[in-house]
Amino acid sequence: MANKGKLSLLGISAFCESMAGMLSAGIDLSEAVSLLKQKGKNSGTLNEGIEVMRSSIEEGSTFSEAMKKSGLFPDYVLDMAEAGETTGKSEDVFRRLSDYYARQHNLSEKIRATIVYPLAMIILIIIVLYLMLKMVLPAFSNVYETLTGSLSESSFAYIDYAFLFCRIALIVMIVLVGAVAVLYFLYKGSMKKQIQKLLSAVPGFRSIMENLALYRFTSAYEVYLSSGSMQDEALEKAAKMADYDPVLSKIEACGRQMEEGHGFAVSANEAELYEPIYARMLIPAEKSGNTESTLNRLVDLLSESVVSNADRLLNTSESVLSGTLMVTVAIALLCVMLPLIGIMNSIG
């Protein structure tokens, strides 16, 4: 029976790298799969799937069929493993898959940090504001009431302003956290396209989503080409990896250009699939027969662009949220210190 758990991105990368190494060494597939078994408490899912693969190979299944029965791998890996078997390029395909999923893991971690860090900052602001409202401001209020008899009858109405300002800021922060949570669950649910369209209105997010979709498409396209697929076939299969409507529309336009007899490089340039500087890299490369190496370089550039945009967005959000925290606390403390200054002046 197939295992239900999927390997992580890093797990897939490690598996593919191991398989490429063992294929290079000439190790039999059944033995190679057995060598991948791991020991430890967290190895049950992997070992279960590997045992299914080993049994399937011994029963006469191809390696790609055994991988499918294991339930460990996404469709893209299964398609590429089958293509590698068909063309006799399994070792090369596994190495490229290993690189692809290693980069996917790094990009996923970077994007996760771009979301999680600002969220953690917002939660910190909420905690600080809550402590201000429950401990700091009431303490000042009690001291002033002891000194003046009643805040409502004194000139120290600044305390009320401090309470009001902190309450408003606290509500805004809670609403932000709630909005992020709602967007996350909607994105993971049935409204992924709608959430993508909403985030596209934010320049930083739009650039990240577009470059990430192009990165996934270009990586898949390059691997399909290296496995022996024709350009139009590789384009059609790789388009499934984009998962972002604006980029998918350009890929479809590129496909229509290719149907008219143009090569991928010219079609991509006409469809404005890539930025002009990237598109101009492909045209001479295609004419000289260096398409795959140029695509690999383009994948690196797109990956760097995603990381750069994510870092820029993270730095901006960090600055804004840190500034918000400092300004909020400073205004609240200023409001509670003004009465103290008044008291000191009256005593002096």
Could you list the spans in which at least 5 consecutive residues all have pLDDT below 50? none
Radius of gyration: 29 Å
Tally of domains: 2
Distance between the termini: 86 Å
Strand content: under 5%
Describe the sheet with the most strands. none
Number of β-strand runs: 0
- The secondary-structure class comes to mainly alpha
Instruction: Compute the average pLDDT.
Output: 80
Residue share in helix: over 70%
- Tell me the number of helical segments per DSSP (H or I, 4 or more residues long): 14
Shape: elongated
Q: Give, in order, the helices and strands.
A: HHHHHHHHHHHHHH
Explain what you see.
This protein has 348 residues and is an all-alpha fold. 32% of the residues are buried. The longest helix is centred in the middle third of the chain and has 59 residues, at 90-148. The chain has two domains: 9-73, no CATH class; 104-348, no CATH class. α4 packs antiparallel against α5 (75-87), α6 runs antiparallel to α7 (158-188) and α6 (90-148) runs antiparallel to α9 (203-226). The chain is built from 14 helices and no strands. The termini are far apart. The radius of gyration is 29 Å and the shape is elongated.
